[in-house]
From TrEMBL:
Residues 1-141 form the N-acetyltransferase domain. The keyword Ribonucleoprotein applies. Keywords: Acyltransferase, Ribonucleoprotein, Ribosomal protein, Transferase. The keyword Acyltransferase applies. It comes from Kosakonia oryzendophytica. Gene3D superfamilies: 3.40.630.30. This is Ribosomal protein S18 acetylase RimI. GO terms for cellular component: ribosome. It holds the Pfam family Acetyltransf_1. It comes from the Bacteria.
Amino acid sequence: MIIRRWQESDRPFLRTLYLRARKSSWTWLDSSAWQLEDFDAVTLGEAIWVAEEDGHRMGFASVYENDNFLHNLFVDPDFQGRGVGSALLKHAQSTFTHTGALKCLSLNEGALKFYQRHGWHVEAQGVSPQGDYLLMHYVLKP
């Protein structure tokens, strides 16, 4: 598996992956208004990396680099449980210059456990249009 910077030619696939993965993971939300173009809006101005193996794009992560903020990490449901998310997370963490941050929806229990297994810890709680979330931090190890 390689982790590489995204290219414009990845956009159609990543749009589809983002829509499909949200529908698969965020089952408590009404997805009727979600569109392929949502990917464009949520990654605007972010660094995006793609996990790929044997020509298959398996997932992506996007980061606000100046803030060390992991904004998105989504794995195609067909490739979950194969280390794709871990590889993307490790790569994102390698770009941090100080403590990393992310917000995870409270009802997304699988994602919360995933981040906690990788050393992230809860710092605060908040509310977003998608529901309650937990603000999580990752402290760089010297």
